[in-house]
Amino acid sequence: xxxxxxxxxxxxxxxxxxxxxxxxxxxxxxxxxxxxxxxxxxxxxxxxxxxxxxxxxxxxxxxxxxxxxxxxxxxxxxxxxxxxxxxxxxxxxxxxxxxxxxxxxxxxxxxxxxxxxxxxxxxxxxxxxxxxxxxxxxxxxxxxxxxxxxxxxxxxxxxxxxxxxxxxxxxxxxxxxxxxxxxxxxxxxxxxxxx
Amino acid sequence: xxxxxxxxxxxxxxxxxxxxxxxxxxxxxxxxxxxxxxxxxxxxxxxxxxxxxxxxxxxxxxxxxxxxxxxxxxxxxxxxxxxxxxxxxxxxxxxxxxxxxxxxxxxxxxxxxxxxxxxxxxxxxxxxxxxxxxxxxxxxxxxxxxxxxxxxxxxxxxxxxxxxxxxxxxxxxxxxxxxxxxxxxxxxxxxxxxxxxxxxxxxxxxxxxxxxxxxxxxxxxxxxxxxxxxxxxxxxxxxxxxxxxxxxxxxxxxxxxxxxxxxxxxxxxxxxxxxxxxxxxxxxxxxxxxxxxxxxxxxxxxxxxxxxxxxxxxxxxxxxxxxxxxxxxxxxxxx
Amino acid sequence: xxxxxxxxxxxxxxxxxxxxxxxxxxxxxxxxxxxxxxxxxxxxxxxxxxxxxxxxxxxxxxxxxxxxxxxxxxxxxxxxxxxxxxxxxxxxxxxxxxxxxxxxxxxxxxxxxxxxxxxxxxxxxxxxxxxxxxxxxxxxxxxxxxxxxxxxxxxxxxxxxxxxxxxxxxxxxxxxxxxxxxxxxxxxxxxxxxxxxxxxxxxxxxxxxxxxxxxxxxxxxxxxxxxxxxxxxxxxxxxxxxxxxxxxxxxxxxxxxxxxxxxxxxxxxxxxxxxxxxxxxxxxxxxxxxxxxxxx
Lengths: 195, 335, 296
Description:
heterotrimer, B: 3-methyladenine DNA Glycosylase II, Chain A, domain 3, Alpha-Beta Plaits, two-stranded antiparallel sheet, 8 strands, elongated, disordered C terminus, C: mainly alpha, 2 strands, globular
């Protein structure tokens, strides 16, 4: 029971306090690239959640059953990235065959996720924090939910930014970044919470 | 030793992953009809959605599935339809090229605004405030949502009303869907006439808020030989299958709201000047005094030049006419 | 040699991967809390970039097309691991400060983009120079942003106090939110700088026969001539509001997006009459047409 509460609090902290985008800057490139429409943002968020959850499990297994026993932990970056790339490819093929509706929805975002900082970052973070299997998967999943939440909020903000009559040098990326900064200030309000 | 383990394990992992992927590519293979990529190649690739499907590859899939005709792509036209037909092994139909036309002529000078709008510069947003700042309930709001969305940069807001450059329009229909007032219509590319108004209000009411709006007087229907132009309620509309391009309705219309595209109908400069009220319509504090019930229409001096339908350039033709107008006709004074 | 110098200058100023192309923002935002971290990250990324570019360029003829992205990633991750271990051994404080962002150099968009776009198609030496150029551009951008954040957020630069004692640092700049704000404001400043430079170049055109215009600009010549004839017909516009289309023919570097300039040309008359509220010939012509068309 205590463990359950512990996991839940840890998940909540991954979503709010240690939000992947606004606190840790993982996954910024897709965050800024894909958030212009709410539909595409939702698709990206779902794809990221899917991949991070599965890769947390796979990378944890590889680290603790192959790399550690043979003292090859210094090669974890290479191993993890190999696993993630293969996993994404596999997921894409599996979805295309068995769940074509989901494949249509996630579509082009799946290959993009391979080079997403969020996936590799989440895997490395789990190792750094020394979580066991269940914690790793749960925290990974929660972090991805945090990413999705952030990208959806931002898609809404960007839809309004379209009509803003900003000075010429601010139009485009600068305005988007400043808006993200303001939301980050709001999220930093959570940082006082201790779990 | 560590190096040996590293090499062995990583080679092993790579082999296992590679084998898994190779197996997956066989087991999870999805058979794709080779016609689909072929048709996708042939389609213009603009992903404009004019066919009604989500992009060119979705259209290709629909054609192969049988849900769409080979003539589905409005942008590709006859050439693309023929190529698709040969891939599919069927006869091609014929494609009519369409273009978008904004059915409103209410510029800032001749249409009244009911309030001063301050808010997002977007038609959809302005619609929420009582239907937009223009008093006419079916008039172009003029904030350019259609302009933002046009993939060909063919539609622009000029003096408060959206105008389509016909030669650039590919007929994809994105502007038609984006207009919150639904006053942009797709008409055949060669159609030389259109009724530049969508106001459904009766004539007396229309006159109070627009100097050029259609008043539903039905003079055009009386003069039309083929019955192409009809008045439903208080607005005229043209059936392009029947229109013979004779231009008689254009001459007869007292409001000059039926527009002749190919080199516009020629009217003397003085008539245009007199048609304007002294004060701009929006600065008048009270309702604009309506002009007489049936103002005598100005006689059109020369018939329009017939030009190649493929190469009209609107600015050029406007300039040409301004120079060639001869001051022959009598013009009635507005009381 | 000159070509390489130009390439380096382009990557730092015109095609800066962070401030112009907006690639590689994860490390930019995360490691610019102090200038020393920024320099460390920048140099580490540059080292990886050069090595991976060279290696991929050497192997470009042997890697099959289908697995090229995966193989690039593996090669890059090999070099990143090497750099990481070196830093852990010789620059331990830096390694601790940068933390997880060192392994994340693997998925840095810049490195993969350069590998894909340049190294896989060019021989070894140009690829190496390209790696150096992009790396220096990245480092320069990082140093710029880190300087702003450190000076305003902590009052120091490279650890040395540079602000007067009365200055109270604004902590927000060190926090994650400050990273977004700083990057946004700096890129807005860069945009403004580019606009001013373009307007300056516009007002002081180079004498004839000086610069060799790249091919893309030459094909725009008819369009450029049309723009210039329209521009001359109008009263001179204010420099600060020079629209991009007018400055397109005079920009000589390969930063001019050809599609933008050419596609912008047909709408120049309407765009200018909308943007510039000065009563000019084109505006009158336009309103005349419109009244002709609508009053008919």
